[in-house]
Amino acid sequence: MAGCVPGATHVASGVTDADSRFIDSLVARMTLDEKLGQLNQLSAGDVASPRALATLIRQGAVGSLMEVIGADTARTLQRIAVEETRLHIPLLFADDVIHGFRTIFPIPLGEAASWDPLLAERTARVAAAEAAANGLQWTYAPMVDIARDPRWGRIMEGAGEEPVLGSAFAAARVRGFQTDDLRSPNAIAATAKHFAAYGAAEGGRDYDRADISERTLREVYFPPFRAAVCAGVATVMASFNEIAGIPSHANRHLLTETLRNEWRFDGTVVSDWNGVVELIPQGVAADRAAAGALALGAGVDIDMVSQVYAQDLGSLVRAGRVPLHSVDAAVRRVLRLKQRLGLFADPFHGASAAAARSTTLTQEHRALARQAARESIVLLENNQNVLPLRKDGTLAVIGALATDSAAVLGAWSERAKPADAITVLQGIRSAAPPSTRVLYARGASPASDDTSDIAEAVRVTREARVVILVLGETRDMTGEASSRASIELPGAQPHLVRALEATGVPLVIVLMNGRPLALQSLVERANAVLETWYGGVEAGNAIADVLFGAYNPGGKLPMTFPRSVGQIPLYAAHKNTGRPPSAENGYSSKYIDLPWTPLYPLGYGLSYTSFTLGAPRLSAAVMRPGDSLMVEVDIRNTGSVAGDDVVQLYLRDDVASVTRPVQELRGFQRVHLAPGESRTARFVLDADALAFYDTSMTRVVEPGTFTVLTGDDAAHTSQARFEFTSTNGRSVVVPERCRANWTGR
């Protein structure tokens, strides 16, 4: 996010005046059908035949393509576009490169558990290099939706519940995908999606409505998108949901007034899959032509797969019902994206079969995948320090997921091959010495209620010194269209846990999942619990590294884990009521059958060592407009092994004109310390960190006291307080701006 200033155009377009003149000359020579063709994106797999696709390209009826497999195929189609069409305009090749291309990294929610945005930038850069070599120039990532309902399946694609954490990862992934120069053969255009509030879907149901306020939009759901724009994101994708009765694909307030006019985004807006035509069932368009007119008028430049623009808008333009200048403006933005990518100079963007072979799934990339998976693992429980495990005796590995090479890849890993992935069982057997017996039994599957294999799992467990039980969700239980009404362990797995607990053999549970799960009954039965998410191609090796102590886990939860689905939504930045929960007051905001507190709070994670954090020290007791306040926190490794901890800084506005959260994340820093080593984490608070939207929806800081809370999770903090004052005792207006970083120093 560095380098942005208030009022600036945040997309570093890389398009010169000469480029603009070239684009203008192209637009002037284009027929209306050719213009609409540039706004038409097709899925190659949906076209009847390769010959039919080639015909559409020759006609100038398509501007971008999805799901084109392989560099050779992309080059063949691109050659048609640049050699056999009237205006020789290159195609854009796009696809979902969410957490890796062929080298699959942890799912984004898991990677956010590293609290290490620089790691995410590195993994996105590898994904971009592999994708570009294989013929892609554009990815529909990062997903930057804030999500606070773990029933929603797409929660696995984002960075969790906190806008500051989400903003840091949004910017990092944009920088990783796009590098410093989109013309580089290792760069691809990124897409911030889904604009906006897709993660607020009612009931956690995918594609559903989000009835939220403008204040909540601006303070919770907009910040990661703003961060992506500040980082120079090339494209933004509209969301499927509606907000306050207006579907995002028809929402001019979102896509034009906010994104383009207020934030000065000058990139391209793309619809989601079929999003334009779905304005009809949403009830705001009577037919396809009306849907197209609404979407184009709102600010959607590219129509993904519905072909409404190409097939239905022409008649409205010719009749004067849709302004030609609106079409021309969208076409210019599409051509400018192609120009930014350098496609008019090198339409192949460096892609070739040879480049793909030398770039894809290299040992260097696998090493980074292993590092990312290790940093993402969160130690939730470790009773009697059962972990790390000794490498002797007999170990039992139980669970269908332990050998599921597709599951470790997670959803949105279409270009990966399960054969590339290291399963949990493979990783353990590889790490264990030949003298150690590693037994395996299937036990139970998340996808079945069948308990017939549990008896064999019990028999195998009785032979072992310790059992490693791999539990969670299958790959297709999270991701798009994979909302779950329950977030308990699915299938026969709960029966398996109870049966193995009864053996008395120490039980180490390895979780593999794409959302927070309700684990209270599980953790009561386990000696140790590791949250490993879906760790990617090197998941098995990374998990073994942690189990045997070759790596000390330092991940922290990017989301609150509830005790039960009935507590949802449950998140750290909640607001108090007039009757905050109290054990002493029966008439307060709580449940009669369950604690109101989470099972695990935001930022939670254990280690094989111990850390001591000091109370926050403030550089001043009073802060004035224009001041910056330094917050220092001393941290010491008081254990016997090296390890990582994440120092977290939260802030509370004690009294304000509108209700404020009890705590909001305002900074974080992952720190590595040797045994006995100390360090001071430093954070800077300025007016931007204190600001909120007041009763008139003006972004201000109001005079009064603020509480600083620091710790290594949201529930265990130390506090200090300062006062913000102004010369006239009035609120200070704070314009929204791009922020350099949230990670302290």
What's the helix and strand layout?
Blueprint: H1 17-29, H2 32-38, E1 40-43, H3 50-58, E2 64-66, H4 71-83, E3 92-95, H5 108-112, H6 117-133, E4 138-139, H7 163-178, E5 191-195, H8 214-221, H9 223-230, E6 235-238, E7 242-243, E8 246-247, H10 252-262, E9 268-270, H11 288-298, E10 303-304, H12 308-318, H13 324-340, H14 353-359, H15 363-376, E11 378-382, E12 394-398, H16 424-431, E13 437-441, H17 454-462, E14 466-472, H18 493-501, E15 507-512, H19 520-523, E16 528-531, H20 539-547, E17 611-613, E18 617-618, E19 622-623, E20 629-637, E21 643-653, E22 664-673, E23 678-685, H21 687-690, E24 692-693, E25 699-701, E26 704-713, E27 716-724, E28 732-733
Parallel strand pairs: 1-2, 1-10, 2-3, 3-4, 5-6, 6-9, 12-13, 12-14, 14-15, 15-16, 19-27
Antiparallel strand pairs: 7-8, 11-16, 17-20, 18-20, 20-23, 21-22, 21-26, 24-25, 25-28, 26-27
Please give a handful of descriptors for the protein shown.
745 residues, alpha/beta, Rossmann fold, Immunoglobulin-like, six-stranded mixed sheet, five-stranded parallel sheet, 21 helices, globular, disordered N terminus
Structural write-up:
The protein has 745 residues and is α/β, with parallel strands linked by helices. Among the domains are: 373-567, Rossmann fold, CATH 3.40.50.1700; 611-733, Immunoglobulin-like (Sandwich), CATH 2.60.40.10. 28% of the residues lie in helices and 18% in strands. A 6-stranded mixed beta sheet has the order 11-16-15-14-12-13, sandwiched between helices. Strands 4-3-2-1-10 form a 5-stranded parallel beta sheet. A 5-stranded mixed beta sheet has the order 19-27-26-21-22. It is globular, with a radius of gyration of 26 Å. Residues 1-12 have low confidence and may be disordered.
